[in-house]
Automatic annotation (TrEMBL):
Record protein name field: Uncharacterized protein
Organism annotation: Pollutimonas bauzanensis
InterPro entries attached to this UniProt entry: Lambda_DNA-bd_dom_sf
Protein origin, superkingdom: Bacteria
Molecular function via GO: DNA binding
Length: 143
């Protein structure tokens, strides 16, 4: 582990251990994680690197993944994972082509669709005209 990661991990442990937290002390976390008290104390003081399997053991009682202990992510507000619901909400072709139909296509089929759609989307993004706007007419919001 590099010094930055060791420092991030120490800060994360400070945020996770203390009064009112799930583990109020290193002793509590030792019982929950089965990681030695001295290992946790050194990690909390940023005195030593921690093995990946030890990170996993420490993360488990919090319901976290090991990576989240060595990142700037707030454990109380982790980034949202891409779920089917989020994918469907962000699907631009809502109503015209169902996401599930596209999701089943293989790589070569997706490439073919991409080759067809890319020029149309680039033209639209440049503000020239939307795919639904007749040739020679500008969209209402275009300047």
């Amino acid at each position: 582990m590099g010094k930055k990661i060791i420092s991030l991990f120490a800060k994360m442990l400070d945020r996770l251990i203390g009064p009112g937290m799930r583990n109020e002390s290193i002793t509590d976390l030792t019982k929950a994680s089965k990681v030695g008290k001295s290992t946790l104390a050194r990690a909390r003081k940023a005195e030593a690197a921690t093995r990946i399997n030890t990170l996993e053991d420490i993360a488990k009682p919090y319901g976290l993944e090991a990576w989240s202990l060595v990142s700037d992510v707030d454990p109380d507000q982790p980034p949202a994972l891409m779920t089917k619901e989020v994918e469907l909400r962000s699907w631009p072709l809502d109503g015209s082509i169902e996401y599930d139909r596209i999701a089943r296509l293989d790589e070569s089929q997706l490439e073919l669709i991409s080759k067809v759609l890319d020029p149309i989307l680039k033209q639209y993004e440049a503000g020239a005209r939307s795919p639904a706007t007749p040739k020679g007419r500008r969209p209402k919001d275009a300047v």
